[in-house]
Amino acid sequence: MRDSGSLHFKITELIHAQKWAELREALPEWPAPDIAEMLPGMGKPERIIIFRLLTKKLASEVFSYLESKDKDALLRDLTDEETRQILANLTPDDRTEFFEELPGQAIQRLVNLLSPDDRKETLQLLGYPDESIGRLMTPDYVAVRPEWTIQQSLEHIRYKGQDSETVNIIYVTDTDWKLLDALDLRRFILANPTDTVQQIMDYTYVSITAFDDREKAVQMIQHYDLEAMPVVDSEGVLIGIVTVDDVLDVAQEEATEDFHRVAAVEPLKTSYRESSVSLLYRKRIIWLAVLLGVNLFASGVIAANEEMIVSTIALAFFIPLLMATGGNAGAQAATLMVRAIATGDVKLTQWLWALSREIGVGLLLGATMGLAVYMLGFYRGGFEIAVIVSLAMLTIVIISNFIGVALPFILTRLQLDPAMASSPLITSIVDVFGLLVYFWIATLILGMP
């Protein structure tokens, strides 16, 4: 692996020496991600010189690896013709991803620089809903007809494959472009050249519609171990493909969103490094305000039982212990369930099975934790306090597990992201129920009103 620091030093030397021919020859030796990482740190003249010396293909690759703000800055420095060449050489999905980050006026100006075919293609991709497969797919694929011979098909693959996203999978369509099959290239290579495509077809394939959520593509490609998956419209017409490298990017984005939501942070659409202080504030303050409101109920429960706490001060010793354990148990259950729902390991229809299973787990965990705090309760407050604390611990852990499992299912049923069942939210809700349970049990055993 080459060192990006040595790349920067070598390129700077060649620029200062004005050895343009040597610089043009040296640049293709370096990976596109390394060049993209180096460009933002250079001055405007050097940045433009380097980019103009890149080949069209390499320039588009480097451009696709830049951060959105660096893409904008670079395009402002280039002529319309240079911008048109960059956009034209981007893959359709990379081009659409770039346009999604721009305001409407900028999109209109850049779209007008594209050729009629590229413009039509880009506008079609931009017409699909956010987070849909239509925004992710590329229309660059190879398709053959069932009546063609294998030899005809291989000639077509050689011709069209140069502009295709992948040639590992060849799609079979009828004259109306309705998808009939998806075949490995290996079948064409090993088949008799005089056979027809129909003779090697098995009519077994997996497809997805352009309006499906992109998370579904992640699950399907992982489940069926696919390199690429065809995208069809409502009538089964093949309109594009989604590849495994695109899906890996989606999986990373979705995992990042889940991490943010589990921590009660509204997901960032840009990287943390690019996010301003005001944006980070806006993404976090709403959740903090919501959690503050929930915690007000917990403080209200404590205030309502002030007399009981004053008369039996030992009860106050165990409030942090019980609340922390309940919150941790609920967060554990919620995290496991959110991930299971996201990966398709647990279906929405299995909610009753999941609830009963976690109640059983909660019973075992609660009994174990109840026994652990019994002796501490006996030492701090005597037999009655020990019974109160151990029973409260058992009940709180069971309730925490129930809430931790139920909330992701409820959010999913409401068509919300189950990852919104964040650890802070679960903890705050459990605190309220846990305090109610704790003081209710204490009231029964101590005989207080």
Query: What portion of residues belong to β-strands?
Result: 5-15%
Described by the principal axes of the CA atoms, the overall outline is elongated
Name of the top-level CATH class of the largest domain:
Mainly Alpha
Which series of helices and strands comes N to C? Answer: HHHHHHHHHHEHEEHHEHEEHHHHHHHH
Distance between the ends: 73 Å
Question: Your description of this structure?
Answer:
This protein has 449 residues and is mostly helical. It has 3 domains: 4-127, MgtE N-terminal fold; 143-248, CBS-domain; 277-446, SLC41 divalent cation transporters, integral membrane domain (Tetracycline Repressor, domain 2, Orthogonal Bundle). The protein has 22 helices and 6 strands. The chain has helices at residues 4-16, 20-26, 32-38, 44-53, 56-65, 68-77, 80-89, 92-100, 104-111, 116-126, 150-160, 185-190, 197-200, 214-224, 244-262, 277-304, 306-311, 314-317, 319-343, 351-381, 383-413, 423-446; strands spanning 143-144, 169-173, 179-184, 208-209, 228-232, 238-243. The strands form 2 sheets. The chain has a 3-stranded mixed beta sheet with strand order 1-2-3. A hairpin with a 5-residue loop joins strand 5 (228-232) and strand 6 (238-243). The longest helix has 31 residues, at 351-381. The protein is elongated.
